[in-house]
């Protein structure tokens, strides 16, 4: 959990705070429903949520997971290097972002 917190802190250091209404619709934020793929063919869709609302069985993933911290702030079509839980370094690409209700 400490490494995920460090990753999220790095993202916050790079972040620029803007009004919610000024974010592009295709930017990943809390509540977004995100479809992504990795270069090894892993394809998934989930909603990014706060830890207390996480429920992997219903497709809700915490921002404090490695994948959640990696995706926050990305936009459709953007890629980011990502380290899988097994240590493999992969490229992760956002295919679609839908804002949740």
From TrEMBL:
* Sequence ranges assigned to domain Transcription elongation factor GreA/GreB C-terminal in this UniProt record: 24-98
Identify the Gene3D superfamilies for this entry: Transcription elongation factor, GreA/GreB, C-terminal domain
Q: Which residues are listed as membrane-spanning?
A: none
Protein name as it appears in the record: Transcription elongation factor GreA/GreB C-terminal domain-containing protein
- Which top-rank group of organisms is this from? Bacteria
* A Pfam short name: GreA_GreB
Q: Molecular function (GO) terms listed?
A: DNA binding; RNA polymerase binding
Q: Its GO biological process terms?
A: DNA-templated transcription elongation; regulation of DNA-templated transcription elongation
């Amino acid at each position: 959990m400490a490494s995920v917190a460090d990753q999220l802190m790095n993202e916050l250091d790079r972040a620029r705070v803007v009004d919610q209404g000024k974010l592009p619709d295709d930017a990943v934020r809390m509540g977004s429903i995100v479809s992504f793929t990795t270069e090894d063919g892993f394809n998934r869709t989930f909603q990014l949520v706060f830890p207390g609302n996480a429920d992997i069985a219903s497709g809700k993933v915490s921002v404090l997971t490695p994948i959640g911290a990696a995706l926050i702030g990305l936009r459709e079509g953007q890629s980011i290097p990502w380290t899988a839980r097994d240590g493999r370094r992969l490229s992760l690409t956002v295919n679609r972002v839908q804002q949740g209700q």
